[in-house]
Amino acid sequence: MKALVTSTSFLKPQNAKAKALLESFFDEIVYNDLGVPLAGEQILERIQGCDAYVAGLDYITADVIEKMPDCVKVISRYGVGVDRVDLAAAKAKGIAVCNTPGANSTAVCELAFALMLCACRNIPQLHQAVTDGLWPRSEGVELAGRTLGIVGMGAIGKRLALRAKAFEMDVVAYDPYFDEAFAAEHGIRRMELEELLQSADVVSLHVPLNDSTRHMISRERIEKMKKGVIIINTARGSLIDEAAAAEAIQSGHLGGLGLDAFEQEPLLDSPLKGLPRVIFTPHSGAHTAEAVSNMGLMSVRNAIDVLKGENCPYVLK
Q1: Distance, CA of 222 to CA of 244 (rounded, Å)
Q2: Catalytic residues
């Protein structure tokens, strides 16, 4: 058995158990030698002879899948999002695709909350000012008493809601599959998307990227939001129209942005670069010791379960 492993964080010490499990099952393992998400021929030249593909944030398009050798039986995502995997092409080729839901939900929600705090209190800017020898007075806003609108109340959204309630925030949420029992237990109000976007002081995005969510934060929707609203995105970059968001920051309509995901990654160019009240992190929401370990073990176990013909609950249908 042979496996390709491309996650750029798989070889961290936190994944020692996952690496040991991988090496105990597979006779040969090919690791990502480039240190960045792979695409096209970069994938194809490394996947020859492989039975399993433990994938990072690679661009696994239809043409790549169609050219994969027939020995590939499973693509196991090291993470939750599968927007960079052409699921229809994988299904047509008979390749199972799985992911690791819940493995990094605490890590991502904590980064989302950190971005909220940074945006409300201008923490990165104040740090830089003091470092530069300045001593500015900056007026921020408190989270207590503000309304947090959570778009997508899955595992990450729910954890964020609990932390926001502890900060005395009013929490409203939108999700097509809304968990009424959880909401009732924790005092979370259900709203339709348009109402939520127009009511919230802070909006945090926790939905997958697909045709229906691409640029869901559009120019038209931003214009209808409260003046001074803060938007947090730790999901996928293309959920936000970055050009429209940049214009709203410059006009003062948006109060701030906290972004861990971007339309282009790495962030080489964006209309948001250099703007005030915009905080960037490099798609690092899942980069905690605990999340790295969880994702590593789950992704390897998923691949092994599929190859052994055992039940894998995380195979996407």
Answers
A1: 8
A2: 236, 265, 283
Give residue 285's pLDDT.
Answer: 94
**Same structural domain, 113 and 167:** yes
Q: Which residues contact 258 (CB under 8 A, 6 or more apart)?
A: 112, 115, 116, 118, 119, 230, 231, 232, 233, 279
Which pLDDT score is estimated for 317?
80
List the Cα angle 128/167/155 in 5-degree steps.
95
pTM for this structure?
A: 0.87
Shared domain check, 158 and 47 = no
The total number of structural domains that make up the chain = 2
Sequence-separated (6 or more) residues with CB below 8 Å from residue 288: 104, 106, 107, 110
DSSP state, residue 36:
S
Asked whether residue 220 is assigned to any structural domain, the reply reads yes
**What does DSSP say about strands 52-55 and 74-77: parallel, antiparallel, or unpaired?**
parallel
Q: For the chain, which residues score pLDDT lower than 70? A: none
Angle at 277 between CA 142 and CA 215, to 5 degrees: 100
The strand order across the sheet containing 74-77 reads 28-31, 2-5, 52-55, 74-77, 96-98
Quote the domain boundaries for residue 243: 105-280
Q: Assess whether 97 and 220 both reside in one domain.
A: no
pLDDT at 133: 98
**pLDDT for position 231:** 98
- One-letter amino acid at 29 equals I
Q: Are 264 and 147 part of one and the same domain?
A: yes
Question: Using the 8-state DSSP alphabet, how is residue 296 labeled?
Answer: H
- Predicted confidence at residue 266, as pLDDT, reads 87
Q: What is the CATH number of the domain that holds 136?
A: 3.40.50.720
- Report yes or no on 314 lying in a domain: no
Check residue 271 and give its pLDDT. Answer: 95
